[in-house]
Amino acid sequence: MPSRKNDLILVTGGNGFIGAHVANRLAGGGHRVRVVDINPRRYIEASSGIDIMIGNLCDPTFCSRAINGVKIVLHFAATMGGMGVIHSANDSTIYNENHTMLINVLSASLSAGVARFLYASSACVYPDTLQEVGNVDVSLRESDVYANMPPKPQGLYGLEKLHAEHVLQQYTSRMEVRIARFHNIFGPGGCWRGGHEKVPAALLRKALAAQRIDDFPADIELWGDGSQRRSFCFIDDAVEAIVRLLWSECREPVNVGCDHAVTIQELAEMAIRCAGLKPEQVRYSYVLDRPVGVGSRNSNNELIQERLRWTPTTSLEEGMTRTWRWIADEADQMLATLEGSELSLTLERLRRSEKVDLQTEAHTFAILLPITSRGSSHREDCLDNLRNFARSLLSTTAYDIGRLGMRYHLRIYLAIDHDDVFLLGDRPGGVNRAESMLRTEGISQIDTLICDHPRGHVCALWRDCAQRAWEDGCEYFTLMGDDVTVQDPNWMSAIVDVFADIAAQEHVPDGFGCVAFTDTSFPGMPTFPVLNRIHMDIFGGQVIPAVFINQDGDPFLYQLYRRWGCSRMIPSRINNKVGGSEDARYEKASAADWTFGPLDEATSTVEAWLRSRNPNVERKLALDVIIPCYRVTLTFMDRFLALQPSSTCVVMFIVIIDDPLSPNISELVRRYGSRPDVRIRVNAANLGASASRNRGLRESAAEFVLFLDDDVTPKENILIEAEKVIRAHPEAAGFVGNALFPVADTIATAAIHLAGVTYFWDIASKRADDTDLPWGVTANLIARRNVADGIEYDIGFPKTGGGEDIDYCRRKRDYSISHGGDGFHAAPSVIVTHPWWNLGRRSYWRFYLWSKGDGGLIARYPEFSYRETVPNSAELLACCVALAMGGLASSLFPATANYSIGVAYFGVRMILALFMANILHDLYRHIWRNADRVAQIDTTVTGMRKIAAIVESSIIRIFSEFGRLIGMIERREFRNIGMSFDWFTNRAGDGPRKEETLNRLQRVGLWLFLVTLAISFE
User: Fold this and answer.
1) pLDDT at residue 584 in the model
2) Does residue 349 lie in a domain region?
3) Which strand ranges, in their side-by-side order, compose the sheet holding 704-708?
4) Domain Glycosyltransferase 2-like: where (predicted)?
5) What pLDDT sits at residue 821?
6) Which element (helix H / strand E) includes 367?
7) Are residues 697 and 558 in the same domain?
């Protein structure tokens, strides 16, 4: 079969040693290559253009998907290794997994119409009886497989390889088969530690450890007495043989190896020389109770030389030297992240070879399970709950535990209070009812911890169980309760896959992160998290800090790893019968301020650990969006929850619904309630915007929060722009964004602008370079959250708003500056569009109510307040109304009726003159004096409509001022009447105050002139 570049070639095991080298060689030659492997990690980088699929070839469905469209298959995938793996204890696992893979790949290949199939066999197919003597060379010809009948290969590994050859030979009429029997291939890019490595890599690693320890004479461990004889073929030579075999017409099996054998002792001495050590610097330690394999094995290469014109060209010495350089580089990268005792222990482990038990090498999940008989209506309820849990656990893990290729184990750690008489009995050594129940249901791996903690301290029980499981070597830690049921199968493999995805996407070590179940009793909340032992290693065996009692441990772990984008929620469901969002069997006790000190300290610990191992991994910015929501308008919510951050920022949307009777709540929860990045909370009653924002702050664990009103339309890039300003000024108390309005195309909307009530909504553009803005409106405001300053919105301000945003910003700003930070920076690129209130229809009550609230700032901030020379229009209006009403009331008395009616009439004329004076003055300001400011307003209103808008703006301003006056009277702040608040908080100098004083004087002067004029015409 000639080589055709367009044919798709599949390399199974293509992330492994031989497969990776072969895949790169084929891709480098212009071939289309697909790699399939169960392990996402490879030691050498894949050539460009290679398609990589990760999956289990013991799964026939995956095999079919992987082989779809393939014309040529090279099957290298196998459960294998050196003598640390290929021994009798692993025989059954090796045979079952390897043969299942072979049958699945072969079946899928036949179905897909594969034309050629190259199979990686092994020298282990040759009979043990030909290889027992170690002091002479044994040259194994391909025909020697059948030298003694029946064939007796080396162990079940060799037997499976021989059976695979036989099976393949049955299908030579349907596809071309090529078989290569490999003899000890070695070189860079292969496993070099952990028990799966071959002997050259193991000896080079031991020599390297001896060199790095620098304590001579150094012990070099050898399995056996060192007299075993082997030949070793360098990887480059083996790849050349494979490529020639693939495109040849050679249909019989051929040896691929070197035909020059050495003893293991000689190979060890060669490794010592590669490390630059002298013979007198080492002493050999012979371990005679470990697997050593056959006594002597060597490849006879006559057939391959004849058929393929191939012979190895790389000497053993050269191959060992090149492999040494690669292993030294790999080891240096690993050791560079270690220091102290950790470095010493690692080097000591590198001096020893490991014997691998494939069953104990499984992914072991520790189920951390506190259980109590207290708090239920009947003591027996806890055992009923436990029975249901056990059955759900067994049914949902059966496939994972029984599958081939990937191995999974369960181990339950029960935590029982020492004084729980029902579960433990009233005598030492009594029957453990909980453990007996689990064993009855078919769970055998159980460890019971008798704990002495205060009642209700569930987190302490979790800590005890997690530490024991960590000490026992478990890989995954699942925090559960005795009243839960697991609802979906294969959750163990799903969790392992998610951790692998996290590692690939975020470039962190495999196992770094937190994975949570989907809790159907508390949707969207990351309850029942799963951790890898990496977390336990980072924190020295403590799963969560001691500050946690029985609440908040789950979200703490999720929020911790969220700061690297390494928290996930999987679809696999779990149901919490008691607890969750409802009442628990114990008094709930939250950890005080865990989102501040405890979370920040844990973050620093993880960051330091990660920096020493993966210095290129940067922590992401955690930004939460808080939306106090009364209207629950779904179109707006859809826009909010569709916003996307950059890849360096993680965002959670916190929606606080302030109308518990809103008919849209159920639909909002249906659409978004299960998203882990969306948290929907409903107030028990209408508490107001400030209280809702405060609840959002308490729900958040982010570094910064972005407050948005529930009726704004944010720009699509708002989260990206928010991240930019935060990263540019990380010490800021917060950032003031722009809240723009649609074009003012009506008299009413133009009047709102002209009245000045929206001036600060786009202050970020007006003062774009300001690093200490006075304040910002909460429609679009960013604030630092991760400081325990105790600052929230003051609910003493009106529910509908007015002054609370200024008060919040001032207190946040003052705290930040007093602790070495900055104030609020302008963020003009952080933009939302706010709709016109009431759909642009006239309604002045909003501005009246705002002013009722913000008038309270005068008493709170006397440093920003000042007494005016003359009253404002609302204060004058109140006096005029009082005069008119007083005259009208006095007219009821006949003795003074004529005079009183005159006074009332005069009061009315004063009111009319007051309105006329304000209108005339505003016309003067907007058309003449401050025409440049008006020109900046985004409006299409011109001509007489503009005049009408100016007239209406005067009414809005007076109405607003009147609300401020009424608020002072209601709060009995009588001394503050006649005072003004500097909205710029002294940041703009005397200009604003002087202008306000000038406006008042001009309006009062014009008013007095009009009053005098009116009197003169009587």
Assistant:
1) 52
2) no
3) 678-682, 649-657, 621-629, 704-708, 780-784, 734-740, 824-833, 713-714
4) 625-722
5) 96
6) strand 363-371
7) no
DSSP codes joined into one string, 509-531: -TT-SEEEEEETTSTTS--SEEE
For the chain, what is the domain count? 4
- Shared domain check, 727 and 664: yes
Question: Quick one: pLDDT at residue 578?
Answer: 62
**CA pair distance 179, 256, nearest whole angstrom:** 10
- Closest of 611, 814, 635, 803 to residue 710, by C-alpha: 635
34 in Cβ contact with 8 (< 8 Å): yes
Instruction: Write the DSSP symbol of residue 671.
Output: H
Considering only CA atoms, give the Rg of the chain.
39
Rounded to the nearest 5°, which phi and psi values hold at 366? -90, 120
Same domain, 885 and 828: no
Task: Quick: pLDDT tens for 192-229.
Answer: 988 888 999 999 999 999 999 888 898 899 999 999 99
Q: How many residues does the chain have?
A: 1018
Based on the fold, state whether residues 482 and 517 are members of the same structural domain: yes
Q: Where are the beta strands (DSSP E) in 441-599?
A: 446-451, 476-479, 484-486, 514-519, 529-532, 567-576
The answer to the question of residue 750 being in a domain is yes
Of 990, 985, 995, which Cα lies nearest the Cα of 770? 985
Same domain, 876 and 945: yes
Q: In which residue ranges of the chain is pLDDT below 70?
A: 1-3, 133-134, 426-430, 578-586, 895-896, 1018
297 shares a domain with 273: yes
Domain of residue 989 covers 867-1016
Instruction: For the beta carbon of residue 111, count every other beta carbon within 10 angstroms.
Output: 12
Please check whether residues 598 and 733 belong to one and the same domain: no
For tokens 């299960």, the residue is 674
- Segments in 217-352 forming alpha helices (H): 235-246, 264-274, 302-308, 316-335, 340-350
Distance between CA atoms of residues 861 and 477, nearest Å: 53
Task: Decide if 589 contacts 497 (C-beta within 8 A).
Answer: no
Domain end, chosen from 619, 643, 662, is at: 619
Contact yes or no for 38/101 (Cβ under 8 A): no
Identify whether 284 is a catalytic site residue.
no
899 and 827 within one domain = no
The one catalytic residue in 95, 119, 126, 157 is 157
Quick one: tokens of 321? Answer: 């030297």
